[in-house]
User: Fold this.
Amino acid sequence: MRRLRAENDDRYRKLLTIRANPRRVEILDRETGEVIEYPSLYKAGQAFGFRAKVMSRYNGKLWRNRYEIKVCD
Assistant:
């Protein structure tokens, strides 16, 4: 079995980058007009009960016909 922490392992380097540089998320509630900001995709996913991948998939799109998700760099 390969060790995850090998210096030449691309997956390990990608994980380090994600943890060191989280992507901020802004979610606009179209019904109330309220904008909620989260410090990372993970925190936004936790607040809505989904994985971070769902938030990144709906970047710039309307989600559940109510929320507009914007992932900032």
Observations:
- The two ends are 35 Å apart (CA to CA).
- The helical segments are 10-20, 41-48, 52-57.
